[in-house]
Design goal:
This protein is of the alpha+beta class and 304 residues long. The chain is 20% helix and 36% strand. Bound molecules: 2-acetamido-2-deoxy-beta-D-glucopyranose (2 copies). One 2-acetamido-2-deoxy-beta-D-glucopyranose binds next to loops. One 2-acetamido-2-deoxy-beta-D-glucopyranose binds next to helix 7. InterPro entries: DUF1838. This is DUF1838 domain-containing protein.
């Protein structure tokens, strides 16, 4: 009897604590500052490099065509948030993404382009550096989700002159790779994170998850611009605690052997603007030369 009674009391205590935890309502929306966004995306401790790793798919399609999976992808970004004198957060990062065979999931270095019938070297993404700025006045609104989570979606429609051939010159050496079109793209990031973590004091939320969608024109290395083909990238990822050694082994080996620069995020800006894109990377003379002679990418990068 006494034992039963005691067990009954324990279970009452247990359930009431549990109930308090799981049913206390979280507010349906939550306003976030640029500082909160940096805690979600990276860390407000400028001494810390924060890694986000993702995996996903790339589909391609022409108008009216059924999209097909062209690649799987596996990538990482390593970022540092630095607060400027005016309160702006400058997110300084490096990122690379590998294109994988959609069936075998192995890294591919040569791709049979269905739009030209030709084999081309695969130029894996290796953008160092990538910069983003978050001004202090900007507010973001996250929405509550079941499970005491919040979610925040940021969509960025982009349209800008093609950096490989901004004047649309038919005689440019890059004409066969970039055509003459303006670049238009949509990039969307959805962050999900626990209410308890955003309400806490930590400079970095450990449990951030991120969902990424991007549309773009075909990439320069595919060498079939102006074919009205769209690429659709769909990925999902999360922070990786404990540094680059905890990356997926395929990514970790690339960092170790080919991209040691990606062990740490940049310490400071070296140029204004957004840094390197897949288009400006391709235009670098040593990259373009390496592409023409059939080198394997990514090229070694140990600059800091
Ligand atoms: C792309 O679409 C435009 C507009 O519909 C069309 O005029 C052009 O012929 C198309 N190009 C190709 C290569 O399909
Ligand atoms: C290809 O080009 C790269 C970059 O210029 C160079 O480092 C490499 O030695 C070249 N390889 C061949 C086989 O020509």
């Amino acid at each position: 009897m006494r034992v039963l009674h005691f067990a009954g009391l324990l279970s009452v205590l247990f359930f009431s604590i549990n109930d308090a935890k799981s049913t206390a309502a979280i507010s349906p929306t939550r306003k976030l500052s640029a500082e909160d966004l940096m805690r979600i995306r990276a860390s407000t401790d400028a001494k810390q490099s924060t890694i986000v790793q993702w995996e996903g798919q790339v589909l391609s399609y022409k108008p009216g065509e059924q999209p097909k999976v062209t690649f799987n992808v596996l990538g990482m970004n390593i970022a540092r948030a630095v607060k400027m004198a005016d309160g702006t957060y400058d997110l300084l990062s490096r990122e690379f993404q590998l294109y994988l065979d959609p069936v075998t999931d192995k890294v591919i270095n040569v791709w049979q382009n269905p739009y030209s019938g030709k084999k081309v070297p695969v130029v894996h993404v290796a953008n160092n550096p990538v910069y983003q700025s978050f001004p202090p006045g900007q507010q973001y609104v996250a929405k509550s989700r079941p499970g005491r989570l919040y979610t925040l979606q940021l969509s960025i429609p982009l349209s800008y002159p093609n950096s490989l051939n901004p004047t649309g010159d038919l005689n440019s050496p890059f004409f066969p790779y970039s055509g003459t079109q303006k670049l238009a793209a949509i990039e969307s990031f959805t962050f999900t994170f626990p209410a308890s973590e955003i309400s806490g004091k930590s400079k970095s939320l450990p449990s951030t998850q991120v969902y990424w969608t991007r549309t773009s024109a075909l990439l320069p290395w595919m060498a079939t611009p102006n074919t009205n083909t769209t690429l659709l990238f769909i990925g999902n990822g999360a922070k990786v605690a404990g540094g680059w050694k905890n990356l997926n082994p395929v990514l970790r080996d690339v960092v170790k052997k080919i991209l040691p620069a990606y062990k740490e995020a940049p310490l400071a800006r070296t140029s204004p603007g957004g840094g390197v894109s897949s288009w400006s990377y391709f235009a670098q003379p040593e990259v373009f030369q390496a592409y023409l002679n059939g080198s394997i990418f990514p090229l070694r990068d140990d600059k800091k």
